[in-house]
UniProtKB/TrEMBL annotation:
Limits of the Glycoside hydrolase family 2 immunoglobulin-like beta-sandwich domain: 223-330
Organism: Penicillium frequentans
Name this polypeptide is given: beta-mannosidase
Reactions that this protein is recorded to catalyse: Hydrolysis of terminal, non-reducing beta-D-mannose residues in beta-D-mannosides
GO terms (BP aspect): carbohydrate metabolic process; glycoprotein catabolic process
Residues covered by the Beta-mannosidase Ig-fold domain: 820-877
Length: 902
C-alpha cells in the first residue's frame, strides 16, 4: 500500500518560560507559531509595548535570559510504524542558538537563524516504541550575545572589526539589525572617534529577539519532493523558451508527473522516470508569455507542479507527494560595458533585452520582530513602492533573507529585487565552522527563492568592502591584497570574508542560479569600492561623510547609486502613537524637538537630530520648536533632496552607450518601528513628503530645469526623460514667474515638435535669461520661479510639468499667504478631488485631513504655479461632518498652514 506524505502542523499549543529566572519561571501560553519571546511576553501583558515611548529600555533584560519553549504532541496515532516510512521534524527557522530535545533527548543544536533543519526521528520513535504516546518537544533558546562573546574569544585570531553597529553580531548568524551598536564593554570606532554609547542600528531599536520565528511541523513519508527547480532559457527573439525542470527526491519513487500551466490553461503534462536523486526534464514553450517589471509589461506567472508516483499509470491514491511553484520566464543581465566618452563601464540591468533605469529604494525588515510580518503587510509595502513609480527594491544585508510573501508580492506587482546576502558593515571571520554555516545558509536560501522571477541580482554583502577600506585608512586594520584568490590566504588575511564574497558565494550562485547575475558587494567595483565610474556606489557624501548639500546630488553621481538619503520625522499620527499615552501630546506646543526625549529616542541616527536641524537650517527657515513644524520641515527637506537626486541622475540615462547613471535606490523605503529615519513612508505606511517627490520624479515622462549661474547671468538647462518604450513628440513652454507678485515675467514656447526617443533623457536646450525686471535693475534670480510644461505635439495636452525655485529655498522671498491659496472639494466622476489654485508661486503644498486615518491621496506635496488648477484626488474620507483639511506650505519666514472645513 502506498502512503502519501502527511504533514502535522506543530504550530499550536506551545508554552514558554524563562529557564532559571524567578519572574517567569512558570509556563505561560505562547502564541501560535511563528512567534518569538518578545511577542509572547507582549501578548501575555508581561512587558509594555517595546515600540512605545522609551520602553525599549524596559525590555532589555529579555535578551539576557535563556528561554524555553515546550509542546506536547502525539504522532499520527492511527498509523502503524513502518521502517520504510520516515518521520521527520522540520524547523523552518529557529532564532538562533538553541538546543532541541525530544522526550528529553537532544536531537538538534542550532546557531544560525537563516537555516532550516530537518531531523529524522524515525529511529527515536521506533526505539521508544511510543508512536501513539504523548511526546514532548522542547527548545531552549540561549543568550545570543553571550554565545557571540564566546565565539569571539574562541576565535581571537580574527579582527572582529566594525566601525559602527558593534562587533559581537559578526559572530552570530542572526539578523544583524537586532543588535547593539557599541557599549561600554564593546566600544566601536566611528569615522575615527571611539563611541561607547549604547544604541541600536541607526534606524532600529536594540531588541535581541529569540524564538521559533518560522513554522515547525512533522512530516511522515515514504518519498517526498525535496526540491523542485526551474531554469528558464529564452530565445533571443522571444519566440521560444526552454524550461529545465528538476525534481529532487528523497525516498523511493519511480515516476513524477510534471504539469505546467498559466492562467488555468495547461501548457504541458508529462511523466518522467526518476532514475537518480535529481532528474531534469526539458520542456519547450512556444510563444512564451514573459514576466516583465511593471514598467515594461505584464507579470505573467506560470505554475509548475510535480507529483511523485509509485507507478507510471497510477491514480490519485498512488501519489506520494507533490510540490508546486510559481515562476516567470524572463532574462536578466547586468550589463557592464564601455561607455561613450566617459571612463569606466556601465552598470545597468537589462530585462528581456530591454535596458532599464532602476529607480527604487532599499529595504529593511518591516518589523523588529520578524515573525510578526504578515503577507498583507508585505504586499502593502511592495505596492507602496510600485505606487511611487519604483521598479527595484534592494534587500539590505543586515536584515533577513525575506519571507516568501515578500517575493510573491514582487513577482505579482512587477518589482525587481536586488538581494544582498546577510552580511553588513563589518569584517566577518571565516573559520571553517562559520564558513560551513554560511555555505548552508546560502545554498538553502538561494534554493528556496530561485523560482521568483523578480530576483534580478544576488549581492555579496552591504558595505563590507567600504568598512575594509575605512579600516585600513583609520585603524590600520583589514589589510588585504585584492588580487589574492587563494582561499586559505584570504582566510588568513585582514579581510577573511572575501572568501565568501569572491569565491564561495559566486560558486554556489553559478551552480544554483547560473542565469542570475551575482555582484560581490554593495558598493563594489573599480579602484576602490565606491568608484563612481565602475559598479555601484553608496552616496553618503550628503548627510553622513562630508555633509555636502543635497543640491550636489546631480554631480555626485555613479553608474548606479544603491544608497543615498536624508532623514525625516514620521507622520504626526505615528509620532502620537509612540508618545507615552499618559502625557499630553500637542503638535503646536513650544518644545525643542531636537532634544525632546521621545523624539531623540526614536531617532537612532548618529547625529540624527543635529543633521536634520543643519540640513533644514541650510535650506529653509527651520522650525524645530514645534512638532508640527519639525515634522513638516524635516520631511520637506528630505523630499527636496531625493527629488534633486532622481531628477539629476535620470538625466544621465542617455540611451545606448550612454547609460552614465543607470539607477538610484533611496536609503530607505521602510521602517521596522516608529522612528525618525531615512524612510519615505513611516512604520504605519503613512507617506512622508518624500513619497510624493519620489513618485513624481519617477513618472515615465518628466521634465527638468537646472539653473547655472555665472556671475550675474543665469542659464537654464532643460531636459526631458522619456522612460516609456515609445518615441514621443512634444512641445513645451518655459515660463518665469515673480514669486512675490505672481506676475508672469517671461515665457518661451517651443511649438516645433521635439522628439523624445524612448527609454532615455533628451536635452531640450539652454536658455540664457536676459530679461530684466523693469528698466533699471537686473533680476535677483532668487525672485524667480521657473516652470516647464511639456505637452503632446499632437493634441497639446500637458504630459508633465516641473516647477523650479531658486535654492536654497530660504533665499526665496515667498509671499505666499493664506489668502493666496484656494482649495475646494469637487466631486468628479472618478471620485472626489481637492482643487488647488494660487495667485503666487507656492512651494511644498501639503494636504492632511487631520481627523481621518483612511484617506489615500493620489498626489500631494505639490508646488503651485499662479493661475493653474492642480487637482489632488483622494479616497477614504469618512461621511461625517466637520471634516478638516489642513494645508501646509513654505512661506518666506517659515512653514505656514491653514484649516479648511468641508
Ligand atoms: C548605510 C546602510 C545602513 C545604514 C544606513 C544609514 O550605510 O548600509 O547600514 O543604516 O547607511 O546610515
Amino acid at each position: 500500500m502506498v502512503i502519501a506524505k502527511k504533514t502535522l502542523s506543530l504550530s499550536e499549543g506551545w508554552k514558554y518560560r524563562e529557564s532559571n529566572g524567578t519572574v517567569l519561571h512558570d509556563w505561560q501560553d505562547a502564541q501560535s507559531l511563528p512567534t518569538s519571546v518578545h511577542l509572547d511576553l507582549l501578548a501575555n501583558h508581561a512587558i509594555p509595548d517595546p515600540f512605545q515611548a522609551k520602553n525599549e529600555e524596559l525590555v532589555k533584560w529579555i535578551a539576557t535570559r535563556t528561554w524555553i519553549y515546550e509542546k506536547h504532541f502525539t504522532i499520527f496515532p492511527q498509523e502503524p510504524t513502518n521502517k520504510s516510512r520516515k518521520l521527520v521534524l522540520v524547523f523552518e527557522g529557529l532564532d538562533t542558538y538553541t538546543t532541541v530535545k525530544l522526550d528529553g533527548k537532544a536531537i538538534l543544536e542550532t546557531d544560525n537563524m537563516f537555516l532550516s533543519h530537518r531531523v529524522d526521528i524515525t529511529e527515536h520513535l521506533v526505539n521508544t516504541k511510543a508512536v501513539d504516546a504523548m511526546h514532548t518537544l522542547q527548545i531552549t533558546f540561549h543568550n545570543a550575545e553571550q554565545k557571540a562573546a564566546e565565539k569571539m574569544e574562541k576565535h581571537s585570531e580574527y579582527s572582529w572589526f566594525s566601525f559602527h553597529f558593534g562587533n559581537k553580531r559578526l559572530a552570530v548568524r542572526k539578523a544583524q539589525y537586532h543588535f547593539v551598536r557599541g557599549s561600554a564593554m564593546d566600544p566601536v570606532l566611528i569615522l575615527g572617534k571611539m563611541i561607547d554609547d549604547i544604541q541600536g542600528w541607526d534606524w532600529g531599536p536594540i531588541l535581541i529577539d529569540c524564538g521559533p520565528w518560522k513554522p515547525i511541523y512533522l512530516e511522515t513519508y515514504e518519498a517526498r519532493v525535496a526540491d523542485l527547480s526551474i531554469r528558464t532559457q529564452l530565445d533571443l527573439d522571444h519566440q521560444q523558451a526552454v524550461l529545465r525542470v528538476s525534481v529532487e527526491v528523497e525516498g523511493k519513487a519511480s515516476f513524477a508527473r510534471i504539469d505546467v500551466e498559466i492562467d488555468g490553461t495547461r501548457v504541458e503534462s508529462r511523466i518522467i522516470t526518476l532514475d537518480s536523486q535529481k532528474t531534469t526534464t526539458a520542456i519547450r514553450i512556444r510563444n512564451p508569455k514573459l514576466w516583465w517589471p511593471w514598467t515594461l509589461g505584464d507579470q505573467n506567472l506560470y505554475t509548475v507542479r510535480t507529483t511523485l508516483l509509485s507507478h507510471e499509470n497510477c491514480s490519485a491514491k498512488d501519489e506520494l507527494d507533490s510540490l508546486e511553484k510559481k515562476f516567470g520566464i524572463r532574462k536578466i543581465d547586468l550589463v557592464r560595458q564601455p561607455l561613450q566618452g566617459q571612463e569606466g563601464a556601465s552598470f545597468f540591468f537589462r530585462v528581456n533585452g530591454v535596458p532599464i533605469f532602476a529607480a527604487g529604494s532599499c529595504w529593511v525588515p518591516i518589523d523588529s520582530f520578524t515573525s510578526r510580518a504578515t503577507p498583507e503587510k508585505y504586499h502593502s509595502w511592495i505596492k507602496l513602492a510600485k505606487d511611487t513609480n519604483q521598479v527595484m527594491i534592494r534587500i539590505w544585508g543586515g536584515g533577513i533573507y525575506e519571507h516568501d510573501a515578500f517575493f510573491d508580492a514582487c513577482d505579482e506587482l512587477g518589482i525587481l529585487v536586488w538581494h544582498d546576502f546577510m552580511f553588513a558593515c563589518g569584517i566577518y571571520p571565516a573559520y571553517p565552522s562559520f564558513e560551513e554555516s554560511v555555505i548552508s545558509e546560502v545554498r538553502q536560501n538561494v534554493s528556496r527563492l530561485r523560482h521568483h522571477p523578480s530576483i534580478a541580482v544576488w549581492c555579496g554583502n552591504n558595505e563590507d568592502y567600504a568598512i575594509a577600506h575605512l579600516a585600513q585608512i583609520h585603524a590600520g586594520k583589514a589589510e588585504y591584497d585584492p588580487t589574492e584568490m587563494d582561499p586559505e590566504r584570504i582566510r588568513e588575511s585582514g579581510f577573511p570574508a572575501r572568501l565568501f564574497y569572491e569565491i564561495r558565494l559566486p560558486e554556489i550562485c553559478k551552480e544554483l542560479i547560473p542565469d542570475i547575475p551575482y555582484w560581490p558587494g554593495s558598493p563594489f567595483g573599480g579602484s576602490f569600492c565606491n568608484d563612481t565610474t565602475v559598479g555601484d556606489i553608496h552616496q553618503w557624501h550628503v548627510w553622513h561623510l562630508d555633509k555636502f548639500p543635497y543640491q550636489d546630488y546631480p554631480k555626485l553621481s555613479g553608474r548606479m547609486i544603491t544608497e543615498f538619503g536624508l532623514q525625516s520625522a514620521p507622520h504626526w499620527k505615528t509620532v502620537k502613537q509612540y508618545f507615552p499615552a499618559d502625557q499630553p501630546f500637542c503638535l503646536d506646543k513650544k518644545q525643542d524637538c531636537a532634544t525632546d526625549e521621545y523624539m531623540v529616542w526614536h531617532n537612532k541616527g548618529k547625529d540624527g537630530p543635529e543633521n536634520i536641524a543643519n540640513y533644514a537650517k541650510n535650506n529653509i527657515p527651520f522650525d524645530g520648536q514645534s512638532l508640527r513644524g519639525y515634522i513638516y520641515c524635516s520631511q520637506l527637506v528630505q523630499a527636496e533632496g531625493l527629488s534633486t537626486a532622481f531628477r539629476g541622475w535620470r538625466r544621465l540615462w542617455q540611451g545606448p552607450g550612454r547609460e552614465y547613471c543607470a539607477g538610484a535606490l533611496v536609503w530607505q523605503l521602510n521602517d521596522c518601528w516608529p522612528v525618525t529615519s531615512w524612510s519615505i513612508a513611516d512604520h504605519e505606511l503613512r507617506p512622508k513628503l518624500a513619497y510624493w517627490t519620489v513618485k513624481r520624479e519617477n513618472q515615465p515622462i518628466t521634465a527638468g530645469i537646472a539653473r547655472v549661474l555665472n556671475n550675474d547671468s543665469l542659464t537654464l538647462e532643460t531636459w526631458a526623460c522619456n522612460m516609456t518604450m515609445q518615441q514621443l513628440c512634444v512641445i513645451y513652454e518655459i515660463q518665469a514667474w515673480h514669486v512675490k507678485t505672481g506676475q508672469r515675467i517671461w515665457a518661451q514656447k517651443v511649438f516645433s515638435p521635439t522628439t523624445l526617443d524612448p527609454n532615455r533623457s533628451t536635452e531640450l536646450g539652454k536658455v540664457e535669461c536676459s530679461f530684466k525686471l523693469g528698466e533699471e535693475k537686473q533680476f535677483e534670480w532668487n525672485n524667480l520661479m521657473f516652470s516647464i510644461h511639456l505637452s503632446s505635439a499632437s493634441d497639446s495636452s500637458v504630459i508633465t510639468r516641473y516647477v523650479n525655485f531658486h535654492e536654497p529655498l530660504k533665499e526665496v522671498p515667498f509671499s505666499s499667504q493664506e489668502e493666496h491659496i484656494k482649495a475646494q472639494l469637487v466631486e468628479q466622476e472618478t471620485g472626489p478631488v481637492i482643487e488647488l489654485t494660487a495667485s503666487v508661486p507656492m512651494k511644498g503644498v501639503y494636504l492632511d485631513f487631520e481627523g481621518e486615518d483612511k484617506v489615500d491621496w493620489d498626489d500631494n506635496g505639490v508646488d503651485l504655479v499662479p493661475g493653474e488648477t492642480i487637482k489632488l484626488g483622494f479616497t477614504g474620507l469618512s461621511d461625517g461632518k466637520d471634516r478638516k483639511l489642513r494645508i501646509y506650505w513654505l512661506g518666506e519666514t517659515g512653514w505656514q498652514s491653514k484649516i479648511i472645513g468641508f
